[in-house]
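Hi R.,

Quick one: here's the Transport permease protein sequence you asked about.
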Amino acid sequence: MSAATTDRTTPALPSLGAVYRSRAGVELKEFFRQRESVVFTLVFPVLLLVVFGAVLDYDLGSGVSFTQYFVAGVIAAGILGASLQNMAISIATERADGTLKSLYGTPMPRSAYFVGKVVQVLAVTVLIIAILLLVGVVFYDVDLPTGADWLTFAWVTALGAAACTLLGIAVSSLARNGRSASATVTPIALVLQFISGVFFQFSQVPTWMQTVASFFPLKWMAQGLRSVFLPDALAASEPAGTWELGRVALVLGAWCLAGLVLCVLTFRWQERGTR
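And here's the predicted structure, written out as tokens:
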């Protein structure tokens, strides 16, 4: 057989961009086909906003309603659910059922798997934010950010989602399957929400709890998002008396680096003790 014939019969490998797009499509389809993931990740934050917005309808001062305050926290909690919780549970499940091991044995670039996960997180995060803002504006007269506040909104969301996604990938290696990951991550996430100024004003949280919360990204995401939804007069109720946006960027950036290091050190394509 001639070289020319061989060249004609050898299928061309897809480009890296095509592989990334294909993997991203697979991740999105798998997410939206899992009813439990859709309900918990997309619907739960909306239910929180509806319930708390209806029950805790009071004025915080300066003409600001609790719902205006709460929307920042519930968006931060939604980002946490779409990234850290979603990644930890889904990757642990895929490792336990052999999906990761099968993918590892294919010619697919390893980076495509993570690109697919990142695209999924970004898409779900954008969808969560859009739904929450729509519900907030239509039913609770929430005032949207204006001008440069949208830029702050964007970088806080991006840094927070990146940090939590990396942490979720790292945490997935601690669990043997999706159920154990859910049982481990969900209670921790709920506790962080309670102490990070999601369900209550952060100034009402005991000081020692504020200190604990300050070690984790959720507190800083919520604080950064509050700065775009609330007037500057309410910054005085923050622990430092300001929004501390520089520190918000620093802490979230540090968590991104820490999460990346943890991913490199801990990620496994198969369960321990298997070949």
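The beta strands are 59-61, 64-65.

Cheers,
M.
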